[in-house]
Amino acid sequence: MSKPLEGIKIIDFTHVQAGPACTQLLAWFGADVIKVERPGSGDVTRSQLRDIPDADALYFTMLNSNKRSLTLDTKTQEGKEVLEKLVRESDVLVENFGPGALDRMGFSWERLNELNPKLIMASVKGFSDGHHYDDLKVYENVAQCAGGAASTTGFWDGPPTVSAAALGDSNTGMHLAIGILTAIIGRGQTGRGQKVAVSMQDSVINLCRVKLRDQQRLDRVGYLEEYPQYPHGEFSDVVPRGGNAGGGGQPGWVLKCKGWETDPNAYIYFTIQGHAWEPICRALGKPEWISDPNYATAQARQPHIFDIFATIEAWLADKTKYEAVDILRKFDIPCAPVLSMKEIANDPSLRASGTIVEVPHKERGSYLTVGSPIKFSGLKPEITGSPLLGEHTDEILAELGYSKDQIANLHTSRSV
Ligand code: CAO
After folding, report:
1. Measured in angstroms, how far is the CA atom of residue 104 from the centroid of ligand 1?
2. From ligand 1's centre to the CA of 52, what distance in Å?
3. If both were cysteines, with which of 81, 86, 89, 98 could 137 make a disulfide (CB 3.0 to 4.6 Å apart)?
4. Closest ligand 1 atom number to CA of residue 96
5. 3 state SS of 271
6. Which domain holds residue 307?
């Protein structure tokens, strides 16, 4: 099966998570992704949170599958020359260094554009160019706080809370991948590359748009009827933290199931979709609620929504989360069990769909990683293990036209 991005050569000058997540996605779809790493150490995640001594950590292996690794010291003259050659032959350079690092290395956008006008340069930074914080280095949770996610996540009586989902890192990488693909199509029209930049703050804000919606509603009417604070609590002038309330027009909550006392994930998420009210009442054995004016409309239910959730929890008390969902699905009620990472790792459906895959690795043996969440009818991405540090250095240098002697000299000078 041919891969749509075959023939696209990408210099992957990324590290940690935001950039690597982007280039990994493009590698899955066929791009030749050359990960450029500092000789001796490489991407810092190779050695962070190791579970096997001296082997690449899962942090690295799960973000760098399907890539090739080239070690290169881009601060030596010889290293700069190799990078220049690579730039002339590549379609895209992706980087997520701290602000100004690439300029200091001598590879500003202007210089890259001069070396190869067709090159697309793609960057992740914490804040966008010109922002008053654009000199800051940024990690995941910093971005979640700057992007409005933390102030709106968690419970009203607790502090701002970050999400376990990588809204700042991998999410930014996904935005960047869309930007790169758009620039590739644009280049087909103009013949020229361009600079694509995505900030982590902006990417978080893009996912928090419903909270910006809520701020404007709050400004206008002074309350938010789908939040637990309504109608009995107080609203200030900023969007509050809403616990596990549904973010759309459908009330929902995380509800206890059988075994919650000992199993931290014995819960389901239950959504009361307006038109599903009748089936919900039937499922719960409460047919009288269907026509009761205190329950019949969403507006009538809202003042005692937590009493309704308590009734549902009483119904759930003798059912496991799986049994509950099996009953509720027959009534077309939007719900799901709260799944632990262990359950996700072993889920046969996720294995069958290729969302969770087991891949071989030269040092680690096999390990679990994520496969493509995007499914195509004409492409089944095959996930391969991440490269060892510098595994493809000689191969890539030979492709660039270096002779065996020249390659040996580059090794001797520690430029690769
Ligand atoms: N050869 C020689 N030097 C290299 C090199 C190579 N192959 N690769 C990187 N370097 C150098 C850079 O040139 C830079 O040198 P100077 O600072 O002397 O110019 C240095 O390594 C490190 O750059 P850095 O600022 O990116 O690294 P850091 O560990 O201090 O910061 C991070 C890490 C992530 C905070 C920062 O890169 C950043 O803010 N990136 C943008 C936002 C981002 O992507 N954050 C998400 C990370 S995922 O959680």
Report:
1. 11
2. 25
3. 98
4. 44
5. strand
6. 252-333
- Tell which one of 36, 94, 137, 163 to mutate to probe ligand 1, the residue whose CB is within 8 A of the most ligand atoms: 137
Ligand 1 centroid distance, CA of 178 (Å): 23
Please give the pLDDT value at position 274: 85
**286 and 396 housed in the same domain:** no
Q: What is the pLDDT of residue 133?
A: 98
Whether the CB of 310 sits within 6 Å of ligand 1: no
Residue numbers of the chain with a pLDDT score lower than 50: none
Residue 237 in domain: no
- Asked if 324 and 330 touch (Cβ cutoff 8 Å), the reply is no
Q: What are the CA-CA distances from residue 192 to residues 8, 119, 198, 228 (Å)? A: 15, 7, 20, 52
Together in a domain, 22 and 78: yes
Task: Provide the 10 A C-beta neighbour count for residue 365.
Answer: 10
Residue 249 pLDDT: 77
Whether ligand 1 lies within 6 angstroms of the CB of 138 is answered as yes
- Which of 333, 367, 383 is the endpoint of a domain? 333
Residue 95 C-alpha to ligand 1 middle, in angstroms?
Answer: 9
Residue nearest atom 14 of ligand 1, based on CA coordinates: 101
Cβ burial, residue 172 (10 Å; 0-12/13-18/19+): buried
pTM of the model: 0.96
Q: Which residue do the tokens 């103009």 mark?
A: 190
Output the known binding site for substrate: 248-250
Residue 2's pLDDT is what?
Answer: 86
Q: Which of 198, 200, 166 lies closest to 182, judged by CA? A: 198
- Specify the pLDDT at position 279: 92
Tell me if residue 169 is catalytic.
yes
Considering 91, 169, 202, 214, which one is annotated as catalytic?
Answer: 169
* Contact (Cβ atoms closer than 8 angstroms) between residue 322 and residue 340: no
